[in-house]
Amino acid sequence: MKQNSNFICKNCSYKVRISKSYAIVNRNHCPKCLFSIHLDKEVAGDRQSSCWGLMKPIGLTFKKTKPNKYNKKTGELMLVQKCLKCNKISLNRLASDDCYQELKKTFFNIKKISKQDRLKLNKHQIKLLDKKDFQEFRKQILGEP
Ligand SMILES: [Zn+2]
Ligand SMILES: [Zn+2]
Questions:
Q1: Cα(47)–Cα(2) distance, rounded to whole angstroms?
Q2: 60 within some domain
Q3: Does residue 103 sit within a domain?
Q4: Which residues lie near ion ligand 2 (Cβ < 5 Å)?
Q5: Which domain holds residue 98?
Q6: pLDDT 10s digit of each residue in the chain, 145 long?
């Protein structure tokens, strides 16, 4: 799979079209089901992994950012995915055309996270969003005040 080229989702078979107009580079997850393929080894976009397992969306988190005058508290919303083949956890940037219903489902997936995954997320210092973050989630996704 070439970077930034159209691809067919390995999970739901949706034809994912990559458009330059999306305010995002390195889009690699499906906007319909939010799955992607484990391609990156160390950093996002390196495409060095030989795993090629399906990456399942398991939750959402806020990117850790240093507060500045534009961004006082919360960082950018990120998708947390887990590889179904090798269990690698990775963070993925959202895109403007990601399905809101799927994102919402992923948000509430926190109730279904296994203990094993919870420990793994803790180790990576990834804190999944929970109910109290729902307003900020809607704000970032839907642009609500
Ligand atoms: Zn899909
Ligand atoms: Zn993998």
A1: 9
A2: yes
A3: yes
A4: 38, 51, 53, 83, 85-86, 88
A5: 7-142
A6: 444 578 899 999 999 887 665 545 557 899 999 999 999 888 777 889 999 999 999 999 998 876 666 655 678 899 999 999 999 999 998 988 899 999 999 999 988 999 999 999 999 999 999 999 999 999 999 887 7
**Residue 138 located in a structural domain:** yes
**CA 135–ligand 1 middle distance (angstroms):** 26
What is the pLDDT at residue 54?
97
C-alpha–C-alpha distance, residues 24 and 95, integer Å? 6
Give domain status of residue 21, yes or no.
yes
Could you tell me the pTM of the whole model? 0.86
Count of domains for the chain? 1
Contact 101, 93 (CB under 8 A): no
Q: Which are the contacts of 16, defined by CB distance < 8 A and separation ≥ 6?
A: 6, 7, 8, 9, 27, 30, 31
Please give the distance, rounded to the nearest whole angstrom, from the Cα atom of residue 15 to the centre of ligand 1. Answer: 8
How remote is the CA of residue 37 from the centroid of ligand 2, in Å?
Answer: 8
